[in-house]
């Protein structure tokens, strides 16, 4: 039987949004040149992503660091048990996570009494949204109602139709929302801490048997990232974003420029302890851990990572 990474058995990656570096890895041949044949498969939500990952539909995930912590620690996740999921390296710093409201909701106070749309109420980036709203005096489940509406792309489409009072957008969609007249009321910089957003994550058992493939994937991704960050490649990289995400060229450029911002693509794929613990602290703030988690969330961070720690290479 062919091993993952061969052309007969491609490396299947469940993704929320195809970043410029992932697009370059696929379309510019960085993955194939390093003998990892990656298929990027769109996911609809964190729950669907991890159900399918658990069932073997994906070999690797683009998912939030918070999701890794949740599914590794909590038996109360939607799978009903902890999962042997491990982070490898950082893809982004949140991609500009922003509180976005429709034109008729001009302030945080105007969100009061409304519905706030998230991917999943107890996973992913929902805690960032709760924190930003709380800084404005709005308490979860008291001053607003939380509704689950899937991926960032799905929430962007819903917000364009005036579905909710507020949501959290990123990946350049917050910039497109502004162009449509929506309000961007706060962003992740207001957290006042370092932050790590999407990471590459593997099933720990799969990684143990396929470490060479995983390392070649990381090397290829970092080469693709370097290509994207070269100023002379910016126009072509924006064209790749238009192609893989089905965006008009002018929208793709807005998205691409936003994803190169200070909270966009991670220039250094290593994940710091400080950023890791900041995300864990947000989850704990909103009671996001079981009473007796299998893994102590403030214990050894190496328990969450391949290669025994966040800065391993």
3D architecture notes:
- Keywords: Signal.
- The protein has 313 residues and is of the alpha/beta class.
- It folds into 2 domains: 11-94 and 195-259 and 266-308, Periplasmic binding protein-like II (D-Maltodextrin-Binding Protein, domain 2, 3-Layer(aba) Sandwich); 98-191, D-Maltodextrin-Binding Protein, domain 2 (3-Layer(aba) Sandwich), CATH 3.40.190.10.
- Helices cover 37% and strands 15% of the residues.
- The chain contains 12 helices and 10 strands.
- Strands 2-1-3-10-4 form a 5-stranded mixed sheet.
- Helix 5 (126-135) links the parallel strand 6 and strand 7.
- The longest helix is centred in the C-terminal third of the chain and has 19 residues, at 211-229.
- The chain is globular.
- It starts with 10 loop residues before the first strand and ends in a 28-residue tail after the last helix.
- 51% of the residues are buried.
Concise summary:
The chain has 313 residues and is of the alpha/beta class. It has helices at residues 20-27, 30-33, 46-54, 65-73, 126-135, 152-160, 173-179, 204-209, 211-229, 234-245, 249-259, 273-285; strands at 11-15, 38-42, 60-64, 85-90, 98-101, 115-118, 145-148, 166-169, 183-187, 198-203. Strand 6, helix 5 and strand 7 form a beta-alpha-beta unit.
Attribute tags:
D-Maltodextrin-Binding Protein, domain 2; 5-stranded mixed β-sheet; 12 helices; 10 strands; 15% strand; globular; ABC transporter substrate-binding protein; signal
């Amino acid at each position: 039987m062919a091993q993952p990474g061969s052309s007969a058995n491609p490396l299947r990656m469940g993704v929320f949004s195809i970043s410029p570096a992932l697009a370059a890895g696929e379309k510019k041949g960085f993955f194939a040149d390093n003998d990892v044949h990656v298929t990027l498969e769109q996911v609809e939500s964190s729950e669907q992503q991890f159900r399918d990952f658990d069932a073997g539909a994906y070999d690797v995930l683009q998912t939030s660091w918070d999701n890794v912590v949740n599914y590794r620690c909590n038996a109360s996740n939607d799978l009903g048990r902890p999962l042997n999921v491990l982070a490898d390296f950082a893809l982004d710093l949140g991609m500009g996570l922003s509180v976005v409201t429709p034109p008729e909701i001009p302030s945080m106070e105007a969100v009061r009494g409304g519905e706030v749309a998230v991917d999943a109420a107890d996973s992913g980036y929902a805690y960032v949204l709760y924190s930003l709203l709380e800084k404005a005096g709005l308490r979860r489940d008291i001053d607003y109602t939380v509704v689950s509406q899937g991926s960032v792309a799905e929430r962007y489409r819903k917000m364009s139709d005036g579905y909710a009072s507020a949501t959290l957008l990123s990946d350049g969609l917050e910039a497109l929302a502004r162009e449509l007249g929506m309000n961007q009321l706060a962003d992740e910089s207001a957290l006042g801490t370092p932050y790590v957003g999407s990471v590459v994550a593997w099933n720990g058992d799969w990684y143990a048997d396929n470490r060479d493939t995983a390392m070649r994937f990381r090397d290829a991704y970092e080469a693709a990232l370097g290509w994207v960050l070269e100023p002379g490649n910016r126009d072509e990289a924006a064209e790749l974003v238009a192609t893989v995400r089905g965006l008009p060229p002018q929208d793709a450029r807005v998205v691409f420029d936003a994803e190169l911002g200070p909270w966009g693509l991670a220039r250094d794929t290593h994940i710091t302890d400080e950023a890791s613990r900041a995300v864990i602290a947000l989850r704990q703030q909103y009671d996001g851990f079981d009473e007796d988690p299998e893994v102590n969330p403030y214990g050894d961070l190496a328990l969450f990572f391949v290669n025994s720690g966040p800065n391993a290479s």
